[in-house]
Amino acid sequence: MKWLKIWFLVSLILLIAVKSYPQTMLKTYELCLECCSEEIVDKVYKEKNNYLDINVIVPQFNNLSNKKQQDLINNKITSLTETSIDEVKSVADEYFKDRPSPLVSYQLYGRYKVTNNSDIISFYIDYYQFTGGAHGMTTRFAYNIDKSTGKEVELKDIFKEGFEYKDIINKEINRQISKDPDRYFSGKDGFVGISEDQSFYIKNNTLIIYFGLYEIAPYASGISEFIIPNNLLEENFKYDKIK
Hints:
five-stranded mixed sheet; disordered N terminus
C-alpha cells in the first residue's frame, strides 16, 4: 500500500505541474489595441475531448496596403498553425482514440503578442505543445513586416548596406552571456554567433535577438532573449522609426 500512496502522490504532483505549465511558460497576451487598432484580428482554433485540448489564437491582417503580401503573411501563419494542430491531433489519436484517456490531455496552446508598430510591425506567436513526458515545449515564431510594402524583413534588411551588424550584435550577446554564463551551454553547443536567418523582433523600437529552447541554453533557461541597445546601432538603421 505504501508504494501505491507514493505513486498517487507523484502522479498528483505531475498533474498539477503540467496543468499549470502553459500558464507560466506561455502567458496569455492581450492584443495591443492602441498600437494595432484595426490592422489585426484574431483567428481562433479550439477543440477539446477527453484526451486532447487545442486552444490557439493567432493574428490575421486585414488592413495592409499591399493585399498580396497581406495574403501571403496570413496564409503563412494559418498554414504553420494548422500543420501544428494536425501533428498534435495525429499523435493523440494514434495513442488514445481507442484506449483509456491519459492522466493529462495532450495539448496545443498558442498566443501572440504585438511588440512594435512603427515603420516595422513586429509580433510573435508562441506555441506550447505537450504530448507526454515531463514537460511540454514552447516554440516561438517572430514576424517583422515592413508597413509600407507589407513584406517580411530579415535582420539584414533593417540595416544600411555595408554595416557590419553581425560583429556588433555578436559582441554584445557575448558580453551579456559573460555576466551569467551558467545559464548557457558552452563551446560549440553554446552561442557561436548570429545566423543569416537569425530570429528577432522589435520591441518598443529596440532590437531583440532570441534563441529557442535548447538552442544555446538548457531547457530551464527558457527562450533566450538579448536586448541590443540602440546606441550600438544608431545611424545605421534603414528605418527611421526603429530607433
